[in-house]
Amino acid sequence: MTSLRLWLGAAFAAALATTAQAQNAPGVTATEIKIGNTMPWSGPASALSTTGKTIAAYLDQVNEQGGVNGRKVNMISLDDGFSPPKTMEAARRLVEGEGVAFIAATMGTAPSSAIAKYLNSNKVPQIFLISSASKWNDPQNMPWSMALPWAPNYLSEAKIEVAYARAKNPNARFAVLYQNDDAGKDFMRGVKEALGPDADKAIALASSFEVSDPTVDSQVLTLAATKADVFMIYSVTPRACAQALRKAHEVGWQPMRFIASGCANKATVMDPAGVDAGKGVLSLGSLKPYTPDPKGDKAMQTYIDFMKARLPALDPNNVGTLYGYTVGEALVALLKQCGNDLSRENIMKQAANMKNVSLSLLLPGITLNTTPTDFRPIKDGYMLEFNGNDWVVVSEMLRGT
Q1: C-beta separation of 53 from 311 below 8 A
Q2: How many angstroms separate the Cα of 312 from the Cα of each of 274, 294, 299?
Q3: 3-27 confidence digits (pLDDT tens)
């Protein structure tokens, strides 16, 4: 009888603990965890939705295999048209109407910024948002927001590329084309910090452009007139990257060229720019370049098979789909690390304590690592070069700071 009483008491205590835990875990039941997402399913940025399609397809596959820790992952994705006010409206609906556990993989710096204050004020995790802006590494002021970029953040990316260029030519002069927003200014800041006291002398000219500008031709012509040794193209919009490469080629300017990691996309940048214009361009990356014939790379073959089976209409040689697959893997890894404690507090705690988390499409040696004082999951990368047909790795791993 004493043993029975002890057993019943333990069972009752466990039931109370489970009930209390459930009350502190919105969006979670014994069989499901509900997460929210916004994506530009329509509008001028709808091409970016390939990432959302890939994340959703990856989670569908995980659910068919039993889910995560016995729970299906139900991602509710709403269209924001890449419009910050619409992102705010969608986030409120997801949190207050749908009661999601957290928000994941919102697309873009501006849309994600629009909802960051709301989510942080309400202590709702904003996990693996899609932006490489350095502002997301701010655990003191935004403890509930964390990005998962496809390479080191823009600030670190620029520093690594400047160091790479100076290793090739210590006396190089730099011409910089940058987007006139937070992303472009991050890049510009990285260039200046990397050059240090030499910045004023080493930067031949920096020219900005607006995302709404129909072309960047006039800026490129002005930059080309400097005859700088290095041309850095810092845009997160494929059109501007393609135009800059093409115009520099048309006027016969042949410096060492770098494009932002988000533009290292054959389909949306290199093909429109033209093979001759794009050949030899460099970019920093942390994801494996797509290879149609993996030759022993089981992870790449698994990705190719996944795309053929689940998203046959999409091009697997698109950084958006490669990246979406990686975000799906990262979300599953995080949920596994949370175990059965899916309270918002523990989800954020685990996101801030990732240690050497491997994802199948990251380049060798690169793993996810975060701490409560450093929210950058990826800090290192490799230099990639476009060889006229595709991107290839041309360096050892380059360490970020």
Answers
A1: yes
A2: 26, 18, 18
A3: 445 454 444 444 434 443 444 599 9
